[in-house]
Amino acid sequence: MLILLKCSLLLVFLSRPSESKFAVELNDDFDQCSPDIPILSINTSKLVFSPIEGGSTSMHISGDLVFMEDYIAPVEVNFWSLHLERGTWVPGSIERTERDLCGKLMSPLEPWFFLVRHFHRKRCPFKAGHVETLPDVEVGNFGLELPASFAGDWKFFLQMDRRLQGRLVKQCLVLSASIVEV
């Protein structure tokens, strides 16, 4: 799911009105949103990101996603952003809440579909220890056209809320990014 954040972020930008051409530089490290909320428990350490030959700005993703805990419906997903403006983090214009990701996981209308359509398991639950192996999945072009106001430093947050053994489990991660003019 961590890679879903990166890829969904790119797709969100692709659907925005455009005025200027920018590239997104993503920090590869995910951080906890706060000390009291743990990071998502999906191991992405075996994923490989490789550029496509021939000067393309696209890339391939391959490797394993390992679910370290059970992800059983409903899984609520909250995605929001902060943008650094004049030295202060302010709410960004990118946000979305999905009350049950599992219900829309395989919808071709969703930004994550290009990736999850390669999953062997097509619906929740994803039990602890479950592994999804991605073939060379192409991620779209990183040379993105965005409104000029998108330039600068961003933080993108992904929080997942789900039930695990009868209790509510919140997990959250933050990804830092810079949007720069090309």
Task: Report on the architecture of this protein.
Keywords: Signal. This is Secreted protein. Helix content is 12%, strand content 52%. By secondary structure, it is mainly beta. A hairpin with a 2-residue loop joins strand 8 and strand 9 (167-181). The longest helix has 13 residues, at 2-14. The protein is globular. The relative contact order is 0.32. The model is unreliable at 1-5 and 7-18 (pLDDT under 50).
Key structural traits:
12% helix; Secreted protein; 182 residues; signal; disordered N terminus
Shape label: globular
Distance between the termini: 29 Å
Which blocks of ≥5 consecutive residues have pLDDT under 50?
1-5, 7-18
- The gyration radius over C-alpha positions equals 16 Å
Q: Treating each run of at least 4 consecutive H or I residues as one helix, how many helices? A: 3
Which strand order do you get reading across the main beta sheet?
Answer: 5-4-8-9-1-7
Summarize this entry quickly.
Helix content is 12%, strand content 52%.
Question: How are the SSEs ordered, and which strands pair?
Answer:
Blueprint: H1 2-14, E1 20-32, E2 42-51, E3 59-67, E4 76-85, E5 88-98, H2 101-104, H3 113-116, E6 131-139, E7 143-146, E8 152-164, E9 167-181
Antiparallel strand pairs: 1-7, 1-9, 2-3, 3-6, 4-5, 4-8, 8-9
Signal peptide: 1-20
Protein name: Secreted protein
Keywords: Signal
